[in-house]
Amino acid sequence: MKPWMNKVLSVDERVQRLLDAMTLDDKLAMMHGGTPDAALGIPALKLNDGPGGVTGPEEAAGTQLPAPVALGAAFDQEAAYRYGEIIGKESRERGTSLLLGPTVNIARTPLNGRTFEGYGEDPYLSAATGTAVIRGIQEQGVMACVKHYAANNQEADRFTQNSIIDERTLREIYLPAFEAAVKEGQVASVMASYNKINGAHGAENQPLLTRILKDNWGFEGFVVSDFLATQSTVKSIHAGLDYELTLPFKRYYGEPLKEAVAQGLVPISLIDASAGRVLKEMFRIGLFDRAPGEGMVPAEQLTMREEEALRLAEESIVLLKNEGGLLPIGAQGTIAVIGQAAVHLIASGGGSAHVPSGAKGTPLQAIERRAGKGRKVLYAQGTAPVPTGPSFVYPSPLAFLTVPAEAFENGLAALSYDTPDLSGEPVRAETAANLNINWQFAGVPHPASARWTGTLVPQETAGLFTDFRRVPLMAGRRARHR
């Protein structure tokens, strides 16, 4: 038996014995999602998003829970624990070892696209709710990763904007929920945010990652960067970043970190500390001592958990008394249903937090049934559908395809480049129906650029354009991330 597999030893002893057996490459693999030597018997570290339920493909769908912000409205830690318990159980069944959630950022603007992932604008409520969710997740044998640390509270320029916040405001508004996650929730991991905080990006912010998180709060887990949020190699690891979440073509850890060690810019003690933090949490949560999940949520469990999700939704509803008949609610009249969630089964939001639903019906259908034949129900989408995943994926240059000629009449010819100025040969070509692009999370390398070319055919003519039937269109988009 390998010495680190001896459960009689303390967690720290098991970690140290494993580190002693690992090469530098093995340790670096633990810091960027690589694969250590299989002979070491280290379980695969499988990550999954999941602040509102375990995300994944339709065929492996879990329970679509109410939006986290709705859970916050329940003001109920017991309900929050049950919420996390469902996520934890389904994560374990799916084979997930690190669940990227919960989100405890404070709601500061309604225009923030991630507000639905948190628990509202109150630091105390966010701390109490988030801590209960973490306990529910981790008591099922899955590591939680609280995010996004810190002050990640707006949509505009959220990858680059600088949040300038004094120490008192940080400590009283933006950090209490993270502090509670560490001290009370014993969370395994903390995710560093994209934005700058007082001039330094979250993933290389030494005051936040080391002085406050690890020194002041005594955090013993590991720090993960948000996806593609790492900005440097040497500066990040010295600041306190332990694990880089990224893509192979944009990596600051791995080989660049190995070179930094060879040049004497990063001491091996820092590598041991970061890799050891990851291993310690894996030992603590029990990943070394059990078989991974089967990869699917059992159908019979899914049915029971959907019923629990309904109860959680009911507990989050805030009721208003209709005094004096102010609201036009009665047995007669037309019912207006507005919003994409009425037909798209999106309980919270899209993007990385979207959870597929296995439900057969829609809220609109339920309203129509309840209204009966005697009442008219009108539906309007209201806004464009929330994207549930990337719509413009960047593959390898080998995936270059010839654009069909008809694309210029029907749809748009979409070309992507791995340069910031549309130069060089395109690395991807496809026909796009429209310009509904989820650019940041499409796996596009940065810097990068893309061009969409096509012909718009107006349905009507008027005024000066009476004889102008076909309008050429060319649109370009560049992505620059420093």
Automatic annotation (TrEMBL):
Keywords: Glycosidase, Hydrolase. Residues 317-405 form the Glycoside hydrolase family 3 C-terminal domain. Residues 29-279 form the Glycoside hydrolase family 3 N-terminal domain. InterPro entries: Cellulose_deg_GH3, GH, Glyco_hydro_3_C, Glyco_hydro_3_C_sf, Glyco_hydro_3_N, Glyco_hydro_3_N_sf. One of its GO terms (molecular function) is hydrolase activity, acting on glycosyl bonds. It is an enzyme of class 3 (hydrolase). Its EC number is 3.2.1.-. The keyword Magnesium does not apply. It holds the Pfam family Glyco_hydro_3. Belongs to the glycosyl hydrolase 3 family. This is Glycoside hydrolase family 3 protein. The lineage of its organism: Bacteria, Bacillati, Bacillota, Bacilli, Bacillales.
